[in-house]
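Table S5 (text form). Sequence records supplied for joint modeling of the three-component complex.
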Amino acid sequence: MSEVSMVVNGRKVSGAVEDRTLLVHYLREHLGLTGTHVGCDTSQCGACVVHMDGKAVKSCSILAAQASGSEIVTIEGLANGADLHPVQAAFKEHHGLQCGFCTPGMIMAATDMIRRHPEGLDEATVRAELEGNICRCTGYHNIVKAVLAASKTMAKAGKGKARKAA
Amino acid sequence: MYQTTYHRAASVSDAVKHLKKSDDAKLVSGGMTLIPAMKTRLAAPADLVDLRHIPEMRGIAVSGKTVTIGAATTHAEVATDARIAKACPALSHLASHIGDPHVRHMGTIGGSIANNDPAADYPAAMLALDAIIVTNKRETPAGKFFKGLFETALKEDEIITAVTFTVPAKSGYEKFPNPASRYAMTGVFVAKGKDGVRAAVTGAGEDGVFRSGEIEAALSKKFEPAALEGVSVPSDDLMTDIHASAEYRANLVVVMAKRAVVRANA
Amino acid sequence: MGVEGIGARVARKEDKRFITGAGRYVDDMVVPGMKHAAFVRSPYAHADIRKIDVKAAQAMPGVIAVLTGRELKADGVGNLICGWMIHSKDGTPMKMGAWSPLAVDRARYVGDAVAIVVAETKGQARDAAEAVEVTYKERKAVTDAVKALGKGAPQLHPEADNNLIYDWEIGDAKATEAAIAKAAHVTRMHIVNNRLVPNAMEPRAALGHYDKAEDHYTCWTTSQNPHVARLVMSAFYNIAPENKLRVIAPDVGGGFGSKIFIYPEEIVCLWASKRAGVPVKWVADRTESFLTDAHGRDHVSEVQMAFDKNNRIIGLKVDTIANFGAYMSLFSSSVPTYLYATLLSGQYDIPAIHANVRAVYTNSAPVDAYRGAGRPEATYLLERVMETAARELGVDPAELRRVNFIRQFPHQTPVILNYDAGDYEASLDAAMKAADYAGFAKRRDKAKKAGRLRGIGLSCYIEACGLAPSAAVGSLGAGVGLWESAEVRVNAVGTIEVMTGSHSHGQGHETTFAQLVSDRFGLPVDSVNIVHGDTDKVQMGMGTYGSRSGAVGMSAIVKALDKVEAKAKKIAAHLMEADEGDIVIENGELKVAGTDKSVPWFQLALAAYTAHNLPAGMEPGLKEGAFYDPTNFTFPAGCYICEVEVDPETGRTEIVQFVAADDFGNIINPMIVEGQVHGGIAQGVGQAMLEGAHYDPASGQLLTASYMDYTMPRADDLPSFKVSTSNTPCPSNPLGIKGCGEAGAIGSPPAVINAITNAIGNNDLTMPATPQRVWAALKAATKH
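The corresponding structure-token record, covering 1216 residues in total, follows.
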């Protein structure tokens, strides 16, 4: 058993877990954060993507013990209170989800992608960078649309903020 | 996953201490290969020693013509490092195409090299760049480091701490990914340095990464894609699986080499 | 059309929970005292089970129970069944071999469940499952259906000689032979339809809970049709009478057919819950899903299509061998018969058709319905043959199709179906226009200059959805009726709950079904809740598959709404002292036409429940139910055009354009319909270029048992799609809708393969057209 402690969605959590406990299982079973899903065994589907210290990672391929001491954001922690994150809003507006199972991972991947591309995104880049997330329902068409739309919205909001700051 | 005991190493010597204490310990860095292997019960180390929090193993240094990359440096860090992009864009390109963005945030160059997966990208770069693999014990040229499928010259208690190489005049990497796994089904790294042209092939060889004499000979005459017209490589020692026959891989070796040269000359 | 009514692009009500991580799938369910299960599975494709020693496993940490098939049988749990009876052409019934939920004497495919371990944690259950010692005696295995029919092939079930389940035929053999004999041209092809793994992103899961005090079972399961699951588990597997068994299918992460069927795991979890005295949860990992989810397709066919001198089709002869895997899954028998051979007329007027279908056991996972189920196989066969015939005849593939289109409706085909409405030329023209078919030659020449081979391919598909009426499918062998039920419950404050037997697992029913209500009463969709997926909440239903939720499920809601509306109007007329016939419902009000008198909807509802002032003799309340049994199948149809570029050096194919022009009849929510088409196309492109379940012929091991080897379509494998719809309303249901869930998967594979073969100049290419295969085909073409 290992003692792990981390900050999850802004809240300090700690507990004793079997060393073999994966981060995703710690989140789901110990913390009750079931929004993060497991869709494969080989680290490919991306249903389990969360942010660790600000970067998208696959929580099914990281031990909780490895993640101890880090800051984790899951799909449950993405919205700002009642306000949806722009990526969440875009997925809804553009019908970027159907069964919803891959959606948390997709949204966490998309927010990370937009963060890494402040210069903006094009369709080819979005498709290439969704390599680590598999969806069986949407054919990706509307996911790509949603990510592009969210990227634009966030760029505008960012500029707005920058202007205000100046 | 079977039971295992996790140890977080604070330093290289601390990691060695943990390794020595256990009969069956494995090092984990990003864990992007090892953890999935443990999940599917293909790997079952009694002890896991985490190298991700050892400051001395992280970071990139470019000094003159020498590039040094700490073993625990992630693929994302290599892919986005401005100094690497300037010194060896082929390596940036390679790193930015390993796995997917999430995997690149965790996976490390040291882990990839130590694992020596026959379809991994980094071994091809190390071999073509004639890189030195630096461990806590010694420095080994890549040519003597990669020994076959998942096998390296690493001894017990030996930990890769960094890799270092001399910036080549030109280099390029092109891979044809396996349609399912996205690992290299064939990837070719070409480098033109002061000692001539080296071309290393990953994803194709039955014994893992190798240098292609045919490609090197042709490119030594002229470092142009046209030099590879009509060149063929033997398929005898290439892999055959459900995705690609040895014959198809032999074709890909030449095609990827050509495209790598195009990139190198760009 | 109101802003939220029929035809509006209403954003989905259900999205909020999915995008915030609040969806509730089976693996998210927790019951007090719940323990975890792991299955011991056969590592052999075919083996006798000599002995099962559970002692070591029972002694492992955390283990609560280790149970085997012998105990299951002793408790009277029944065998799994196939619910659609097919008779061979000699009149004998299909040969169904016994399928015990836990194999007792013999394992017949890799992954066949042999025992279950229940333990405190998932990890402990798996550890102990490995400690169960099963002594196997390996037998020779066969995974290829053609080989399984051959002499000396390993035999799977004593009930089925030569592994033959049935040898069935449809159509007129004599007339077809005569047509071929007198034909001006006959196109002959050998067609392989590759085996696929459905791969819903949520792996299958089950949570069985036996309540000793109530002697009652609850089963949470990843099901597309929880009511059918309850019916079958009660009637055939003897779990419990229906009143003692509640089945809940909460949020389900995709199905695509694979979650229609009742699998061993949910039965065993329920049984084990009683045996072990604890709630038992099992969740498949991905490899387990690959091994044990029902696979799709896997046909091998010989086909001959006969043309007269005017390029009119005069006959079609098909001989198909269908791989059923090791056991007959729930609806397996219907797939290559009534869902396949009846579609072989396609969009064409073909006077004579004959199809022979042999269904065969092999040592592989059971095969059953997967998105399209039979119709993709029929479409692929027909549309590959049409394209090939056009090349052989030297005519434009679009024109060959055009001259053979059915143009008069209703149209009786020689293979049972009676097409009620359609305009195939409209779809073809729309697709050709959207694809700039006329400009293809220029694009091809431009690509050639860049060293790339460009090709174009068409596919004109038809499918049959909303299988019905019940009496008709019953006469064809179906074990169930194919109607749907609905109940509309108006609350005293005017909000509405709709209970439906359809199940939503991505289709967006919570939105589209609410749109029907919104449209009818002028209420916001937010005041309507759709309740589904729980046998305690919804009386009965047949579930969601075969694109039936719209045509059948929504039609049932319409019928219930009719009754609610009629009663509401009666009450309104009484309250306003007007004639019932003068009452109109608009914008949430009941009005007397031509006057300013009105009653708001909520007030009307309250009046129904206070019952202070109702028409004499009227029962209080406002709640109505209906069952709807359609009068015919529906027939969505359309035209898909795919354009590809092939890299001749590597064989890598890029889809540069994909156009879909569909006729789905009337549409409730175009946004959702487009989403269904996108997803269907992705799965069709997956079949054509990427996906294939591959068994090792010698060992029977599944070589594509993870995403490392089974190629799932990813975002960069696909382009954005150009989709459009046209509309010939369906005359056989009140909404005029046809269904859209499967079209993409049905229409797209032949379009892709026709495009690639067009690009490389070699027609000999099997799915999936992987880079290696395309490269090899290209090489073969240039050698000649």
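Note: Chain B has three domains: 5-50, 55-166, 170-265.
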